[in-house]
Specification:
heterodimer; A: about 35 residues; alpha+beta; about 30% strand; B: about 130 residues; OB fold (Dihydrolipoamide Acetyltransferase, E2P); 3 helices; 7 strands
Chain lengths: ~35, ~130
Amino acid sequence: MKRLLFIVMFVILVVAAATARAAIERVDLRVEGMT
Amino acid sequence: MQQHLGRLEGVDRVEVSLLGGKVAILPKADGRLDPRKILKATFDSGVTVVEMAVTATGWIEKNADGGLSLRVGGDETYRILPGPLARELEAAAGRSATVRGLLYRKPTRKGKKLEPGDLPLELLEIAGKE
């Protein structure tokens, strides 16, 4: 039972860490007409 | 324009280089950038966007039509345009990758008009795969 709980917690942590990393890290624009 | 963009949700810093008309938008540590809102805010500030590129980490997903998408959030997905780099990413489907790509390019006169909300990702570089 303890081992199963550990595995579930580990999977949740791995998924949470990977999801948190998913993001747009930077946006670069090239524009015209800027003064 | 810097103020317009700086007020957007999730934006930490806006770096403007008048030379070459380059603008870099960086997110807050826990913030999320929305390219559609950035595009709109830039146009609203009175300048024309020639190109918009993003650097993003997300999940590579296979679509029903066989193409690929990059998922960067729960409901935030970008369709990846076919090409040599997209083919390279096919093996990474179901895994995470960091890519740089064009989300918007100013349409040419004869070019197809961009559908609202449709920002396909034209890959420029695969920075990392897991």
